[in-house]
Amino acid sequence: MRSLVVLAALSSVPALAAPAPPQCALPPGTDILAADHTQQATSDQPQPTPVLPARPAAIPPLPDALSGLSFVRHVAGAGAVISDLGASHGLRSIAARSGDRFMVFQVTPDGDAAVSGAITDLTPLQMQTIAAGNITDLGTQHGLDTLFVRSGGQFQVFYVSPDNERLIPGVMWDASGKDLTRDQVSKVPGAVPTVVIGSGNNDQPLAPTAPGGADLPLVEKASAGAEGPSTAPHLWMLVDPQCIYSIRAMQMLQPYVVSGQLQLSVVPLSVLDYEDKGQSTRSALALLSKPADKIIAAWQSGDVGGAPGPEANQRLAANMAIAHSIGLRGTPTLVWRKPDGTEGRIDGVPTSIDAVLASMGS
């Protein structure tokens, strides 16, 4: 598994304030089975874990200097408290905080995107000197030149400040929630790992079903957490525990589960290892080590640490094979049975839970 090498002292924080949905998607051309989850599970790099709040917080007013920046408005709309850290090297710095977790962004000059990282003292000229021959130019995104820098089997993406004086290692998001760095890196040969997971029968991927095919019978075989009354309409949601959009969907569904209007099954997967250094796999394994009736509560409280149970790897491998078989491209993905016997499916955060319930006959 390739990992990120950070050439500056930076704190690692979760993407708690990524902009609005729809989905944490796999890189273009990447299969969900193309990751070594066993390796990721044994990594000793600790990573913070997002915690699901009971209810989204009210959105506080933005500082005047930030109110016109579309990226900042979307981050605030996700429930984060925004602080203006000032302007430097042609970029506006902000901090986004939710509870005791925070993230620093460098907003692009057009206000429509931002890099999740801190400005370093490293200059582009210094990088060209110390990494000569190991740098690939990925072009320009929202006015910032992009450098892909290799160091042996590791790599890091750097964005160049508008004044060409500083580098920012990190991931760029646009105001619609798209991970622009992921798209850029996917074009570099060898940057995305292609190692098959699992053991035994799980090494053989299932054939993907055709669009509109029978997804639900496969999803029902997954290892999942469950909450809500068995008499209520049953919704299945496939999630990456580290995916901010999976978290957002859970926040939307939670009141319906608590009120007894919905039975929810949550299927843990690992999609974002290439971004979070294997924390997605470690979180999924931790959840799959717990009893089914404890999985959702553990996810909500951030209880995703500790050594995985003896059957966790096999359960995750089976879940990943099921996700592959239904053609899953990201999380969350929702599947349910309609009253006429056909299936409903949404890839991404639903725009209306009431509409989903109506489709389920509730």
Written account of the structure:
- The chain folds into two domains: 37-185, no CATH class; 200-359, Glutaredoxin (3-Layer(aba) Sandwich), CATH 3.40.30.
- The termini are far apart.
- Helices cover 24% and strands 23% of the residues.
- Strand 4 (101-107) and strand 5 form a beta hairpin.
- The longest helix is centred in the last third of the chain and has 15 residues, at 244-258.
- It has eleven helices and 16 strands.
- The chain is globular.
- The protein is of the alpha+beta class and 362 residues long.
- The protein has helices at 37-41, 70-77, 124-130, 180-185, 216-219, 244-258, 273-276, 279-288, 295-301, 312-325, 353-359; strands at 24-25, 81-88, 91-98, 101-107, 113-116, 135-141, 144-151, 154-160, 167-169, 171-174, 225-227, 234-239, 263-268, 330-331, 333-337, 343-347.
- Strands 2-3-4-5-10 form a five-stranded antiparallel β-sheet.
What topology emerges from the helices and strands here?
Elements: E1 24-25, H1 37-41, H2 70-77, E2 81-88, E3 91-98, E4 101-107, E5 113-116, H3 124-130, E6 135-141, E7 144-151, E8 154-160, E9 167-169, E10 171-174, H4 180-185, H5 216-219, E11 225-227, E12 234-239, H6 244-258, E13 263-268, H7 273-276, H8 279-288, H9 295-301, H10 312-325, E14 330-331, E15 333-337, E16 343-347, H11 353-359
Helix pairs in contact: 8-10
